[in-house]
Amino acid sequence: MADSISFFTSLPEDINFKIASLLQVRDLCALGCSSKFWKQLCFSDSIWYHLLTHRWPLFRSPLSPNLKTWKRLYFERHIELGLRAVSVERFLKACSRNESLEVGDYLQAFEIINGARFGFEDIQRFLFKPEMNVLVNLVGVHYCITNLGIPVFHPFHPPLFNFICILTTDTLAVIIF
């Protein structure tokens, strides 16, 4: 184990930074607990600033004095988005008791997500779960297509989403094929 730590300490700092910044948050935290060397790097503000701006490229906020670290801001934002996703799920469930949904309610749910500036990882993590209501999935897909620029069709891959969404002033129809 000492040999592997000395190997990484001999690498340039930017290489170690790149290694750490490519990890998922759970893995980064585990690596930070493995040695003093990795703890210093993995819990540094530069790593967490990179993770925050990579996950939420549209998020622009100066670090306020009461937050103190980019790591704390990252986790607070993650929790906030999780709570917003739960509120969208509950709202849609309450509005669609009989698997039908008014367009105004759908658009209101969409605006909750839009206002929070979800990233694709957030949509995947919070809205694309098998146990979720299909309407919650639909709001997530709609957001990904319109706000994140995720293509519906790719020339070299099968379609990402196999449905057509028809939205009029008073009706939302989804045709799944």
Automatic annotation (TrEMBL):
<dbReference type="Pfam" id="PF12937">
    <property type="entry name" value="F-box-like"/>
</dbReference>
<dbReference type="GO" id="GO:0031146">
    <property type="term" value="P:SCF-dependent proteasomal ubiquitin-dependent protein catabolic process"/>
</dbReference>
<feature type="domain" description="F-box">
    <location>
        <begin position="5"/>
        <end position="51"/>
    </location>
</feature>
<dbReference type="GO" id="GO:0019005">
    <property type="term" value="C:SCF ubiquitin ligase complex"/>
</dbReference>
<protein>
    <recommendedName>
        <fullName>F-box domain-containing protein</fullName>
    </recommendedName>
</protein>
<dbReference type="InterPro" id="IPR039588">
    <property type="entry name" value="FBXO4"/>
</dbReference>
<dbReference type="InterPro" id="IPR001810">
    <property type="entry name" value="F-box_dom"/>
</dbReference>
<dbReference type="GO" id="GO:0000209">
    <property type="term" value="P:protein polyubiquitination"/>
</dbReference>
<dbReference type="InterPro" id="IPR036047">
    <property type="entry name" value="F-box-like_dom_sf"/>
</dbReference>
